[in-house]
Amino acid sequence: MKVNGTHYRSLWWDADKNALQIIDQRWLPHDFRVQQIDTLTEFADAIVEMRVRGAPLIGATAAYAMALAMRLDPSDSAMNKAWEFFNATRPTAINLRWALNRCRDLLRPLPTEMRASAALTLAHEMADEDVEVNRMIGVHGLEIIREIASKKPAGEPVRLLTHCNAGWLATVDWGTATSPMYHAHDADIPIHVWVDETRPRNQGALTSWELGCHGIDHQYITDNAGGHLMQHGQVDMVITGTDRTTRRGDVCNKIGTYLKALAARDNNVPFYVALPSSTIDWTVDDGVAEIPIEERGQEEITHVQGRLADGSIGTVQVTPDGTAGGNPAFDVTPNRLVTGLITERGVCEASPKGLAAMFPDRAEAD
Ligand code: MRU
């Protein structure tokens, strides 16, 4: 998507430098910094420290990480070591394992001298695929927004609420939850987006930045405001992303998503989840019991990062000295609270039947 008139993806390959470039998201929305990734450690750090973040983007980054690993040493043992190393960077988003498996499956049967170029070609393909998949999510999600808009007085905006950043920054381009928003805006359907701040990392600020760059009307709200807005008829639809979707349609997403789904159900607000099929973990049924939830550092809770009065970017402590913080980064929304799943193939029910009918090839294969 565009930033100040220039089109960016969240990562891209610089052929002259023979290296991956990323947007270091830790500094957004205050500062747009591009970083070149040259070593395996830098790749791992970029994922762990959330310079790159969001399930699909983590997957795409991992594919480029495997390409670098193969350039350095294309042996079987190096490949397996790289798989283990990168798979351990973040535990919840399944796109990481999906991407690493896809690389390993392609590379394993190849002679070692072919692996480096094959891995890089695959990484490019996976990045391009991600863009197209997210574009299609937008095409399908647009129809839901159009339907809601058709029932409103002309010119009245469809009011959407989203949690976290499931935007183009979290994918290679378009985003998942934001793709229908971008498509609706571009189709001249008026929308207004309530953006949850998403403590502690405030991914909502990234969403606000994205929407602002695209000229989409939005308001940044506290994580606790959504229920109140829904009770007062100010939300027409909730749409979020997901880091892992189980075969029965439970969705694991940024902490706080579950509470939005509960409030949506209590207020008859449709709750949709947008996802590429790479986010489906066909090996898991019960998301609450089976999905590992990342526990992040306490300082993300006890401190807040932002632009300081002198213009620099820094953190301030918000708790008394010595206060312990608890920081589960994701939660699971059971399928019964999900109105529908918006995928690249269309919209389906969040159920074993719904997902299997939409992806019969994948459901059987895994
Ligand atoms: O911890 P993050 O910022 O990587 O979490 C991101 C999310 O929870 C997104 O909603 C999810 O990855 C879907 S992104 C298209």
Automatic annotation (TrEMBL):
<dbReference type="InterPro" id="IPR000649">
    <property type="entry name" value="IF-2B-related"/>
</dbReference>
<keyword id="KW-0028">Amino-acid biosynthesis</keyword>
<feature type="site" description="Transition state stabilizer">
    <location>
        <position position="164"/>
    </location>
</feature>
<feature type="binding site">
    <location>
        <position position="203"/>
    </location>
    <ligand>
        <name>substrate</name>
    </ligand>
</feature>
<keyword id="KW-0413">Isomerase</keyword>
<comment type="pathway">
    <text>Amino-acid biosynthesis; L-methionine biosynthesis via salvage pathway; L-methionine from S-methyl-5-thio-alpha-D-ribose 1-phosphate: step 1/6.</text>
</comment>
<dbReference type="GO" id="GO:0019509">
    <property type="term" value="P:L-methionine salvage from methylthioadenosine"/>
</dbReference>
<dbReference type="InterPro" id="IPR005251">
    <property type="entry name" value="IF-M1Pi"/>
</dbReference>
<keyword id="KW-0486">Methionine biosynthesis</keyword>
<feature type="active site" description="Proton donor">
    <location>
        <position position="243"/>
    </location>
</feature>
<dbReference type="InterPro" id="IPR042529">
    <property type="entry name" value="IF_2B-like_C"/>
</dbReference>
<feature type="binding site">
    <location>
        <begin position="253"/>
        <end position="254"/>
    </location>
    <ligand>
        <name>substrate</name>
    </ligand>
</feature>
<comment type="function">
    <text>Catalyzes the interconversion of methylthioribose-1-phosphate (MTR-1-P) into methylthioribulose-1-phosphate (MTRu-1-P).</text>
</comment>
<protein>
    <recommendedName>
        <fullName>Methylthioribose-1-phosphate isomerase</fullName>
        <ecNumber>5.3.1.23</ecNumber>
    </recommendedName>
</protein>
<dbReference type="GO" id="GO:0046523">
    <property type="term" value="F:S-methyl-5-thioribose-1-phosphate isomerase activity"/>
</dbReference>
<dbReference type="InterPro" id="IPR011559">
    <property type="entry name" value="Initiation_fac_2B_a/b/d"/>
</dbReference>
<comment type="similarity">
    <text>Belongs to the EIF-2B alpha/beta/delta subunits family. MtnA subfamily.</text>
</comment>
<dbReference type="InterPro" id="IPR037171">
    <property type="entry name" value="NagB/RpiA_transferase-like"/>
</dbReference>
<feature type="binding site">
    <location>
        <begin position="53"/>
        <end position="55"/>
    </location>
    <ligand>
        <name>substrate</name>
    </ligand>
</feature>
<feature type="binding site">
    <location>
        <position position="90"/>
    </location>
    <ligand>
        <name>substrate</name>
    </ligand>
</feature>
<dbReference type="InterPro" id="IPR027363">
    <property type="entry name" value="M1Pi_N"/>
</dbReference>
<dbReference type="Pfam" id="PF01008">
    <property type="entry name" value="IF-2B"/>
</dbReference>
